Structure formats: structure tokens, C-alpha cells
Amino acid sequence: MYELKECPCCLSDELLVSDNEETVICSECGVIKRNGTWLIIEEKKLKATA
């Protein structure tokens, strides 16, 4: 696994890496990389009109 420098979502350098280096979690936004795949969940924003 190559060394990560920053989160692809929020660009934070505060990354938590598991002992086996298969899981990475961003401590700022919570984005997770598991088994080489980034799991990025985007919040859907609803627009209310009156």
C-alpha cells in the first residue's frame, strides 16, 4: 500500500491507519478507505420551495 498524505475529500492530513494497513479513516470528515477503495458518501441536499 502506498503512503497516503491527505484525504481526497477534505484534504486533511489527519489519517488513522489500521495495523494491517487495509483500512484508513480520515479523522476530520470520516471518509474511509477499505481494501484499496475510498468509500465517499455525499449528503444529498434537498431544496424546499414555498
Task: Give a concise summary.
The protein has no helices and four strands.
Unreliable stretches:
none
Q: Determine the structural class based on helices, strands and strand pairing.
A: mainly beta
Question: What is the succession of H and E elements?
Answer: EEEE
**Head-to-tail CA distance between termini:** 51 Å
The coarse silhouette is elongated
Helix content: under 10%
- Major β-sheet strand ordering: 1-2-3-4
- Rg from Cα: 14 Å
Strand content of the residues, in percent? 25-35%
Count of all domains: 1
Total number of helical segments?
Answer: 0
Instruction: Kindly report the average pLDDT value.
Output: 80
Give the biggest beta sheet: 4 strands, antiparallel
- Strand elements, count: 4
General description of the model:
The protein has 50 residues and is an all-beta fold. It has one domain. It contains no helices and four strands. It has strands at 15-17, 23-26, 32-34, 37-39. It has a four-stranded antiparallel beta sheet, with no helix packed on it. A hairpin with a 5-residue loop joins β1 (15-17) and β2 (23-26). The protein is elongated. The N and C termini lie far apart (51 Å). The model has no long low-confidence stretch (mean pLDDT 80). This is Nonsense-mediated mRNA decay protein NMD3 family protein.
